[in-house]
Amino acid sequence: MTSTPIRRTDRRISPVFLGIAAVTAVSGWAAWTGFADNPGLAVFLFVTAAWIVSLCLHEYAHARTALHSGDISIGAKGYLTLNPLKYTHALLSIVLPVLFVIMGGIGLPGGAVFIERGRIRGRWRHSLISAAGPLTNVLFAVVCTAPFWLDALDGVPDTFRYALGFLALLQVTAAILNFLPIPGLDGYGVIEPWLSHRIRRQVEPFAPFGLIAVFVILWIPEVNRAFFDAIDAILRALGVTEWDTYWGHELYRFWEGSQEIPGS
Question: Where are the transmembrane segments (predicted)?
């Protein structure tokens, strides 16, 4: 069997990713210092850029785990560069997730890396590859909420606090949605290696429609209410209140008119 050597350029961080990270840093600084004339614009840029960074890290985690599990073709496909344009179609990977954030404040799972599963041996490795992405969202959520559950918010400007709370909400929703055991989502990828060949063959045709089905179901008011009640309960346990996420979302949607933050 031929192997694909991983060149240094295959691992080099993409300038596109570095640019997005720079936007995250600058807009976060603007939200913190109040430098921007419109704080909502700073929050929008910070949350959107940080969300794209998390999408890149999510897919990178899949790729890196696949590489160490036996798929040495990952590097040549550009997945180790953190370039968001390499993770399948830009519309599915970037535009749609950002659009859903704008529309409803839901962390939509992004694109995907193409993994040559035939190169990988062992069911545990296949499950770990699928779990690596949403576990990155979990880690991102822990980092975003750390100032809240560590009571380290003294002196933190309200604008930045609310932006961080809203970003945490996106990471929690992304982790939960990704871990659902539905064909097409990472949660199904975790359990798929343990299913019989007959079940996998029967389920395979439904994989492209799994994500669509999830959001159709979420349009049902009772399901939507229960879903966000669960999200709020998790965030409250991490110290993030509904007040934080509400005002984070309000600031994010700056085009709807300037919102004066109570107490600011």
Answer: 12-32, 90-115, 127-150, 162-182, 203-220
